[in-house]
Design a protein that fits this description.
This protein is mainly alpha-helical. It has two domains: about 5-55, no CATH class; about 60-240 and about 375-700, no CATH class. It has 27 helices and nine strands. It has helices at about 15-25, 40-55, 60-85, 95-105, 110-125, 125-130, 135-140, 150-160, 165-195, 200-215, 215-245, 255-260, 290-300, 300-325, 365-390, 390-405, 425-445, 450-460, 460-475, 480-505, 505-540, 545-575, 585-595, 605-620, 625-630, 635-660, 665-700, and strands spanning about 5, 10, 265-270, 270-275, 285, 330, 335-340, 410-415, 415-420. The protein has a three-stranded antiparallel beta sheet. It has a two-stranded antiparallel ribbon with strand order 1-2. α9 packs across α19 (about 460-475). The longest helix is centred in the last third of the chain and has 36 residues, at about 665-700.
Length: about 700
Amino acid sequence: MKLSGPGRQREPATPRCIELIEKGELGPFDDEIYPNFNTGLLETYLEERNRERSFEASSFRWSRLLILILVVGIPFTFITQYIALETGMVLSSVFYVAYIVGLALRWKPNEINITASAANLVDNTVVGFVYVFPAIFLLARSSQYAISPETSGSLQNWISGYQLVGICAVTALFASLLSLFFFIVFRRLWVIEDPLPAPGFESLVELMDLANTLSRGLRESSRTALKKMGIAGALIFLFAFIRDFPFFGTDSIFKRIGTGIGVGDWIYGSYIRTPPTPASKTSLSISLSGLVFSIGWYMRWRTALILLLGSAFMWFVIVPIAILTHSPYYWPLTGEMFDVSKLGQFYMVNLQETNYFGIPSVPIEGASSTGNNVALGCLLGAGLTTLIKTRTSMIGAVRDLLKRREMKEGQWVEGKGWYEWPSSQIPIVAGVSFAAIFVTLWLIGGFNPIASVVASLFFLTVGFILHAISVKTAGEAGIGPTIGILTLSILSLFFILKLVGIFVSMEGEIILLTLIATTAFGASMAIPVTVLWDYKTGHYIGTRPFQLFKAQSVAIIVGIPFSAFIAFVLADQLSRGDMQFRAPQARAFASFITILTGGKTFWLYIILGLVVGVLLEMMTGLGTVFGLGMFFPMGLSLTVLIGGIARDYWEMRLKRKYGRERDWGQIRTLKLIDTYMVMTGLFLGEAIMGLVLSIYLLVG
């Protein structure tokens, strides 16, 4: 017989587990813990046990928390944003770096759980700042997006100073703290009473188990892993420096060498590609980026293949068809329509002092720009289909929350202190957050007071429901419907503000307020989804929730301002063209805003993309990955696939060598973490080079 939870079934606890629970002898890291994950009985028992024993077993040290936040978490806010803008994916290895650091310093599993959670949360505050925030700058400065000159001018005034980043930071800070307080309710519902499976959390518990039993020799291997990360980072930094730094005017050493041997036209940044000409119908390329290779290593070959198929669909189907069928290309600065196949008329022509400066000068550039409408439709279709596919989880989330199950006694343990953060503070924090966001938008931002009230209420009402949906969906499937949720956020905010704006607001103010609020919501949305895995892991190893909550609060307060400032610098350079980031989500949301405001839209392409996204999401569950691939050159997706294939080949050889060993599971885990450190080194090296280049361009 199976125990049923909303929307899924749970296996009953094993007889041995029930016996140990009745005797009160089952504790963290016991063998009987693992086969009884998510049974409900085990989680309820551990909650009672932890309430009594976690005060002695779980320790919290400010010095160790701050070390990981400052040394690991904060540097990765730049690294992760750089990677996300370049590839469209928020990929972070902060947890593994923090884990290895804790292991090398001989910290206890609970300390690693608490400090790694905080460092990881600092890094995960970047979501709204890389997916939505750059869209403000693109709409203000880029000629690709058809908005009125008045609206564009209004946005340009905002991005010219630091007021915008301050408003976004304050709004995101209070929205994120509020979402963390929401998780007090979510923890009771979906960690204890009706535990979500949270795919992949088992490996985190296993890592903590390893930390609990490791010998000195294995701790030495963790130091070796850190050294490998440093060596990999140094080598890729040196290569990226040769490849990217403009030693000779705008040319790098790599570019100059290529020019010397007659292939300079084939080298474009980190890519080797076929030179685009007016006669080109497509483009072939390969990326020489260790960072991109490492993304494939994390992604594995199947997901990487879907990404490559998205790029192939764009460059081998959409682009050639757009050229051969003479698709229209709209140039918003003059309001003219061009035959995309005739854009070669601008090839090698000096347009610096004309209204055509920046127009695509070869057909494949115009066709790919047109094809981005298909990619936008694909992302929206796949994202919204994800929400529809997870309707059972969404309905279950709302039903669970509406039940308002009574919070059990025991948040305060007499003579010991708070076991978990008091839920009675949720209304207080909600009121303070509403007031702080309202004052920030109205008095500091100068937005209309009615519109500011509407935006502030969004976080307490619609925002709460969307947070619940995100946590429930991620806990069921292992990944949240980020694009779909952010799209819903933009839609709901824009149309509500548009309704209010009939009386009080201009279009520019509505666009800006929508994107500011969605940026803040995107940052806050990552909080409860990320910490679900931390609280589940902590629940099984005896970590006191109060200590996790305290560490995560500090992470939010420290991380949000850094994320906001870095986002401002990178978005500014993106919109000026100083840094050639792909930024697919930001570009997609900028295009989406032009659609909502009634700009020139090629609905046929968007509808085609919607159909493709819906079908792929239903068939593979990876429709958003396919849509992302459409924004990328073939070279990036090809190198990602190479990385994914390399990972699977490595694992096959590893299993062939050690698969029959008794401790095969431990060997595989440690070897895999070793490779993660090398890949993290590739992340670090290229991202640090990106930082050096950003500073050089900023100062220059």
